[in-house]
Structure formats: structure tokens, C-alpha cells
């Protein structure tokens, strides 16, 4: 496992880390014992960073991380997020009292005294532009409740705004072969500012595994069923904003990336790791097998310049126009 510095912070985190949305809920059936085994397997392989949120299973993924990392609090870094447990459009949701309550509740579930990276969880742009939320996070940092803070954003514009905030140390963005827009301006500016990048939705909700057919069905409590058209939250969080059947069609055209890399999953993650602005990629998982497969991405061949150009051209000519929502 290789480690990369998170922006200009003192944290060096595993280049491949894991998100815990799937083991918390909203991805169909979950199994806590399998989830804990998966977390253990990841840590045994050198993974020292996990991303979660207070709304993943109503805090359940935070509780699972507390169990898995007990006694390893100084060695395993945890990033969590806040704001979506309330009305994200209500300014009172970002008051000093509300944010501190969110923080204390996460600390309690995580069984920790400090959060390594505390992130605003995809708030409306107006909330970011108001700026008061950053002042409260500065206070939490000064109080020692959080080590660093960042923002999970939906759009490049929001990300560029956050880069202007002096103490934002990380941006979490949707980034994968189907969502290459951040490469153009956001990533170079983040690098220049010393801000880390966490790549989420790296497999486009599974499209980039190449395992789905046009007839694939998802359980009712799986966001790939109830949010496939953005009915519950931002459409970009599900299938990277692509309509499912178009996504399956496009993924079929990418089967070549698996050549010499084992499978499409490893190849898709490897492509992200090959982008120099990336600090870490955070695929989700529900089983030990998925953890092990994702880990293999760190050891498969990188993409050649010719392959990178081919994928860039593919995005601009075949994918970009089909992505729904503002990004």
C-alpha cells in the first residue's frame, strides 16, 4: 500500500481507502459481521483511512467503524460528514449549536475524542457562500474536536469556491471515468492550494464494474432503485448521473480497460489513482470479496498516455452530454 499526503496536512493516508455508505444502508441488504470482516481485511492490507457520514444508516456505519478500529484510534484515520440529518436548506442547520451537536454525536458513535477530517456533506451553494459554517469549523478545530475539515461538493463551481477558504484541507468529489470534468480546472487549482482530493462514486454505483445488464434489478431500499432519477437526492450520486440503460451501454464500450488488469473494477480504480491530484479513492463495499478485489487496483498496471487520451476522448464524445444534473 502506498500513502499520499492529504493536501498540506500532517496526514498520510492510503491511496486506496474505503467509503462506508454501503455497509450503513441504502444499498440493499447489509450484514454487520461481513462488514466488520471487510474493515479488518482492509486494515490488514494497510488501509488507514475510512470515510463515513452521520446519515449512513442513521449513524450505523460510524458505530461499525468504532468497533473495527477500537484500540487503533491513533493509526486509523476517520473522515465523517454532517448536515444532511437535518434540513440542508435551513440556515439554522448550520448554527454553532447545531454543528457542535452533530460533531458531538458523531464523536460518541465513533467512540473517539477527535475527528480526523470533518466534512460538510454536500450543502447548498448558498450555505457555503454565507461562510458562517467555516467559522464554526474553525472553532471546533481550535477546541481539538476535529483535526482538519473539508467539504463534500456536488459541482466544480462549489469546489472552486471552497478552495478560497483558507482552512479547507480536502474536497470530496464525484470522480470516475464517466465524470472527468474536475480534471480540467478543479484538480489543478486544488493542487496549487495544497488541498487534498477524495474521489467518491469511483465505480459509478457499480456501472464501471461491468457486471450490470440492461435487465438488472435493485432492492427497494437501494438508492440505485429509489434515486436512479434523483428523486431522493442529487442524481449525480447514483450511476454518476447517467440514466441506467445508457450507463450500461457506455460501460460495455469500456470492457477493453480490463485487459492486463484483471477486471473492470480494478481498472476503473487504477485510472483514478493515475491522476496525480488524487489523494485517495474511496470505493464502497459490502463483502470481504469486494474489499479484496478493490485492493488489487493498487497493483495492476497504470494506464499509458495513449490509453488516458482514449478515455479522455471517450468522455468528451460519448459520455459528457448524457450526464444529468449540474456538476
Automatic annotation (TrEMBL):
The record, for Gene3D superfamilies, names:
NADP-dependent oxidoreductase domain (3.20.20.100)
At the top level, the lineage of the source is Bacteria
Concerning InterPro entries, the annotation shows: AKR, AKR2_Oxidoreductase, NAD(P)_OxRdtase_dom_sf, NADP_OxRdtase_dom
| Residue ranges of every copy of the NADP-dependent oxidoreductase domain listed in the record | 15-314
Q: Tell me the Pfam families matching this sequence.
A: Aldo_ket_red (PF00248)
**GO MF terms held by the record:** oxidoreductase activity
Know the name of this protein?
Aldo/keto reductase
Q: Which organism is it from?
A: Pullulanibacillus camelliae
Lineage at the top is: Bacteria, Bacillati, Bacillota, Bacilli, Bacillales
